C-alpha cells in the first residue's frame, strides 16, 4: 500500500498479515496501535459477514460485550486492490468520521486497516424490513448523501467507469478449464457481456437521478444496528464515491433477498409499498421537508431502473472473484444469480419505467 494514501494523523504499520497465520500479524499491528495491551490477555473474534475480506475484533475482556475498547482489523482479500481504490477508501473513512458517519481509523498496514468497532448487530433479511430500523437506515443514507467531497474530486457517477474496469479484469480465458466451460455455458463470452453493458449504459445514462456521495455497497452486513442506543451505522466504504442517488437505494434494496447463495430468495425483494415508504422517509431527511408523492414516485422509478446496474455490476465483480479469490465461496454461482436476475428483469423494467 502506498504511503500517499495516508491522511494526516494516520499511523502506517509496515506489516503484511499472512493469510496462513493472521493472528501473528495482528499481534504486530496491535503492538503499534495498542502498545499497552498485554499480549497474553488479547482476545480475538473472527467475523464472517464479508466474502472478500477477513474482519477480526480484538479486545482484552473475556466477553467482547464487556469490552470498552475494541479494535477491528480488516485484512484485504487476495488481489482486491485490483478492484478497489484504497487511497479513496481511506479518504472516505476519514472524511465521514469527522461528520460522525464512519468509524475512527487507528492505522493502516500493508494489506488492511485498523479502525473503531461499532457495537451492535448486522442486519438480516428480517430486521432490514422492520419499519423502525428501515427508517433509521433511510435517514442515515440521506445524511451520507448530503456529504460533499473536496473540489479536487470530480463529481461524476462511479458506476460506468467501475463496470468498465471490472469488465477489463475478467480473463479472456479462466485459468481452470472447468471454470472456463462454466463461464462459456452461462454467459457466452466477455464480448457478449461488453455489448450488453453498452446497451444498458445507453438506457440508464439518461437518468435524472442526482449525483450524491454514495456508499455503493450497502449490503445487510454493512449496516450495524445498536438496539440500546437506537442507532444504525454504516461500515466498509471500499466502494464509496459519487454516484446516482437512485443507484445507492436500489443497490440496498437488492440486498434484501439475502447474501448466502443457499438463502437468496427474490420473494424478499421489497414491494412498491415498502419502497415508497422508505423513499419518502429518505427524501424527508435529504430535502429537509416532506416530499410530494410526485417526488417519491420519481425516485421510485429511477430506483427500479438503476437496480439493473446494481445486478450487472455485482455479477461482473463476481466473475473476477471467480478467477482471483481463494475464499471458499461459489462466486461462479453468485455471478449466475445476479446476471440471470438482470437478464430476467431488464426488458420488463426498461419497458415499464421509461
TrEMBL record:
Its EC number is 2.7.1.82. Pathway: Phospholipid metabolism; phosphatidylethanolamine biosynthesis; phosphatidylethanolamine from ethanolamine: step 1/3. It is an enzyme of class 2 (transferase). One of its GO terms (biological process) is phosphatidylethanolamine biosynthetic process. GO terms for molecular function: ethanolamine kinase activity. GO terms for cellular component: cytoplasm. InterPro entries: Kinase-like_dom_sf. Keywords: Kinase, Lipid biosynthesis, Lipid metabolism, Phospholipid biosynthesis, Phospholipid metabolism, Transferase. It holds the Pfam family Choline_kinase. Belongs to the choline/ethanolamine kinase family. This is ethanolamine kinase. It comes from Papilio xuthus.
